[in-house]
Amino acid sequence: MLRGEFESAAERSAEELRSAYGDVLAETVESVGVDTVVSRSGVDRDIVEAIAAGEEPELTLEAAAAVLAADPERPDGETIKAEALDILLMGMTTAVVDVDAVAAGLNDEMDPKEIQQKVEGRYPVTLAEYAAIHHFLEAR
């Protein structure tokens, strides 16, 4: 979800990309500890423990960013979230696609208006949705 960490996004499926995000989250929890992540992120302990166990609970990008921000070596959660959304916006610009093309490329799993709201950060986006959009844009 940070620039440069997923350069091979186009070479992975959306599911593999979501799994890779989960690996980064699990590494963060492992390095700083469950208690620290819970106290710094505000994310529910059960979810943080599931991440630590290698599971992939449904998370919003905002919650994932908060988990990553629990690591003092990373920026704050708002910055991480903004950078992640910027990756999508820049991907749309680079690939020269609009939200209608993204929706069609995702087999209309989300409608164009919903995609626009999620990419702009006006509506929560799950990590699975983020991975699907990220993969689609990188593959273009």
Report on this structure.
This protein is an all-alpha fold. Helix content is 65%, strand content 0%. It has eight helices and no strands. Helix 2 packs across helix 3 and helix 2 packs across helix 4. The longest helix is centred in the first third of the chain and has 19 residues, at 14-32. The protein is elongated and about 40 Å long. The two termini are 18 Å apart. The relative contact order is 0.17. The mean pLDDT is 91.
Task: Give a topology summary.
Blueprint (H helix, E strand, L loop, with lengths): L13 H19 L1 H8 L3 H8 L8 H9 L7 H19 L3 H7 L6 H8 L7 H13 L1
Strand content: under 5%
Biggest beta sheet summary: none
Question: How are helices and strands ordered from N to C?
Answer: HHHHHHHH
Mean pLDDT: 91
Number of strands: 0
Number of helices: 8
Described by the principal axes of the CA atoms, the overall outline is elongated
Report the uncertain regions. none
Task: Give a quick summary of the entry.
The chain has 140 residues and is mostly helical. Helix content is 65%, strand content 0%.
Note the main attributes of this structure.
mainly alpha
